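Hi team,

As requested, here is the filled-out complex form for the nicotinamide-adenine-dinucleotide run. I kept the field names the same as last time so the parser does not choke. Let me know if anything looks off before we queue the next batch.

— J.
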Amino acid sequence: MKKIEAARMEPFVAAIFAAAGSEETEAAIIAAHLVEASLMGHDSHGLIRISKYVSWLRAGEVVANQHARVVTDRGALLVIDGNFGFGQVIGKEAMELAAERARLHGMAAMAIRNSGHLGRIGAWPELLAQRGYASIHFVNTSGYGILVAPHGGSDRRFSANPIAAGVPRAGGSPYILDIATSSTAEGKIQVARNKGKKLPAGMLLDGQGRPTDDPQAFYADPPGAILPFGAHKGSGLSFFCEVLAGSLSGGFASNPQSPTAKRLVNNMLSMVFDPAAFGSAEAFAEDVSRLAGWSKASPPANPGEAVLLPGEIERKTYAERLADGLPVDEETWSQIVASATSLGVAISKF
Ligand code: NAD
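And here is what came back:
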């Protein structure tokens, strides 16, 4: 396991995407997002994605230098087409627009279709919370990302379908919930496979629909499936991610027959609220702060392990990794170096 300083990694990642065809700004946005995801402890959506993104770009599954295109504009309601561009850019541009509309109308509903991988979804409520807005986001992946068995089923029917929500915190980092509705994100199975580790029981089915803890069984032929979290509850939320993000945006719910079934496409429904428009922004912040204090005052179930609120573990990991470096396993590192070398990016420069 290597430890790499984030400040050295980010320009290296940007150079890889610039060499792969992204304009400088786009390459920098992708690099910042992936490094930040790793800093926050979401390795599954961080550096491990570099080689995959490069291969998607080469295969035409994601298109460089695209922008969020408004296809419907009804003021507080917007539909955006991502033109299969990098989700890091499409998501950022779209969220800036949603923030502007929430400021004007008190709230905004935005559906994004045909975006490339939107990465760590928590990045989007975070951007909005930094501007003072509360938000909730439902995401699906039509076609290529079908990985999850519905509760009671035995093969892949849904995508990992994350839900994220955020709220600003007076004088501190926002509270951010960021969860896949699958019992694990697919990237974490990749991480376990790269590290040669097993997964906890209750997460995976093998290609015959039998429970397994072996990440290899998930990638075998026939492939395995991920179970939803919380049995019927996670499965139900996943169904509504498909409907709200996929069907409503026009980007399609999971469906192997959809026109985008052969590429990785994220769709997202975002609802953004300006607390000030509901009454008093100060009273809202005070009430959230009271709730946070009340929750954290619960005596720890395990002595020494405090109650954590959404987003707190990521802040802690961020601070630790910023100081100690980003852990990168050998397999992931060799994939990154192979991508860089194939694009003529000399690692020695970084
Ligand atoms: P996870 O299981 O690590 O859960 C993360 C959430 O739980 C965070 O909000 C975190 O603050 C909170 N949390 C963690 N430990 C906690 C504790 N002890 N107490 C209280 N709260 C705690 O995340 P996941 O479901 O594995 O998802 C990982 C990442 O994968 C996310 O960033 C998600 O957006 C991303 N993802 C993206 C896609 C996509 O299509 N783009 C698909 C699936 C997942």
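Two things worth flagging: The pocket of nicotinamide-adenine-dinucleotide is lined by residues 42, 44-45, 117-122, 139, 141, 160, 162, 164, 176-180, 184-185, 188, 266, 308, 310-311, 313-314 (CB under 6 Å). Residues 1-59+325-350 form a domain with the Hypothetical Oxidoreductase Yiak; Chain: A, domain 1 fold (CATH 1.10.1530.10).

Thanks,
J.
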